[in-house]
Specification:
The chain is an alpha/beta fold. Helices cover 39% and strands 12% of the residues. The strands form two sheets. It has a five-stranded parallel β-sheet, sandwiched between helices. It has a three-stranded antiparallel β-sheet with strand order 1-2-3, covered by helices on one side.
Length: 315
């Protein structure tokens, strides 16, 4: 691309942010737009970042709303479905899973499948960007986090399947360096959770519940008890186990792929792009020794004395 074309592209597509082209050693590219801490694929922001930020910030609160806030690929949709079944008081046999609305990309009013009862709203934006009324009116907020190594690997596979926004073609070696630098879609993992720690410390009255993905996987029943207590629910352990069974990875994936659950988050073959392995430690299949050493140094630098730093990351 010549200089004139690049300038025109920046003007047309980056009027509300800086357009960058991320390129790997093979010449494959990903075009992203950055606005302050927001990083998104250009194709996902056709209506403008400022309009989207305004929509999210001004989203009216409805009594009983539960907001799930997380960095992408930390167990967001699994957590949202645990909430979906927890917050339902009828028979679970015929109830299907629920694709929550990611308000960073979609308007809640236009979401194809709304749940009966209280809303479950999902965002990957940092806390300062979230709906103001939700906090002002005492809405419940659950922050989900996961080992950054597994998170980065899961996002890599997710973006490669997300053909509706162009699909990621960058090599793993290039991708992981961009990800650690906070240049991949949704920005810096470390800044995201550092900002949440600051928010929780400065505004304890917001009563935010922090949930760790690895704890949910390894100690599911106790973690589900903890979540339902936060929500003011009182289901039996038998009911909680039924919720866990309904939220198995196989069931959630199958209900999307057999058409029972409608969501735009599918590939061109109708396969879910949300659910892959969902395991702990998958990072070992991609990280080189050098890459692991680099991210360990980054974790030590960014998460020293952090509430989001645990030994489980070495699993």
């Amino acid at each position: 691309m010549d200089k004139t074309s690049a300038e025109e592209e920046n003007h047309n597509e980056g009027a509300e942010g800086k357009v960058s082209v991320l390129e790997d050693e093979n010449g494959e590219q990903l075009k992203v737009v950055t606005f302050e801490e927001i990083v998104m694929p250009v194709s996902a922001m056709q209506k403008g970042i400022k309009a989207r930020l305004s929509y999210v910030k001004k989203l009216p609160y409805q009594d009983g709303d539960v907001l799930v806030s997380s960095y992408p690929k930390t167990g967001t949709h699994w957590t949202a479905n645990l909430l979906h079944f927890l917050m339902y008081h009828g028979p679970l046999d015929t109830l299907v899973s629920h694709p929550p609305c990611l308000i960073d990309l979609f308007n809640y009013e236009d979401w194809p499948q709304k749940r009966d009862g209280n809303r479950i709203i999902v965002s990957h934006y940092q806390p300062k960007r979230l709906p103001a009324e939700h906090f002002e009116k005492g809405g419940k907020t659950i922050v989900v986090f996961r080992n950054p190594k597994d998170t980065s690997v899961s996002l890599f596979h997710h973006l490669r399947k997300f053909t509706k926004i162009g699909g990621l073609k960058l090599s793993w070696n290039s991708y992981i360096n961009y990800w650690m630098d906070g240049k991949m879609p949704f920005g810096s993992y470390f800044d995201y959770y550092n900002n949440w720690q600051q928010q929780i410390k400065e505004k304890p009255e917001q009563n935010v519940l922090v949930v760790q993905y690895e704890d949910l996987k390894k100690d599911s029943l106790n973690q589900l008890r903890r979540i339902q207590n936060y929500l003011g629910l009182n289901h039996s352990d038998e009911r909680l186990q039924a919720v866990l069974d309904k939220c198995s990875l196989g069931t959630l994936k199958a209900e999307v792929e057999n058409g029972k659950v409608k969501t735009p988050l599918i590939d061109e073959k109708g396969k879910s792009i949300l659910y892959r392995k969902g395991v702990i430690g998958d990072w070992k299949n991609l990280f080189t020794v050098a890459q692991n050493e680099k991210i360990e140094e980054l974790i030590e630098e960014k998460f020293r004395n952090s509430m989001f730093s645990y030994d489980v990351w070495n699993c």
